[in-house]
Write a structure and sequence with these properties.
The chain is about 75% helix and about 0% strand. It has 2 helices and no strands.
Length: about 60
Amino acid sequence: MKLLITLLMLISIVVNGLTSYHLFKVSNYDLSSLLIIASYLSIVMGIYVITMKKAKSSVVKK
């Protein structure tokens, strides 16, 4: 499941980046900046998913 989410994030980043570049070329700066932010958030979430580990209990039994 983690691999599937990682691949979807990478595809999302590439599509957002290319679309943002195209919109920037045709002088649509508002949508271009929105897609740049979406691409950045996709990168952040991708890193979070890749590095996420199962939470372990921090309670120490005596």
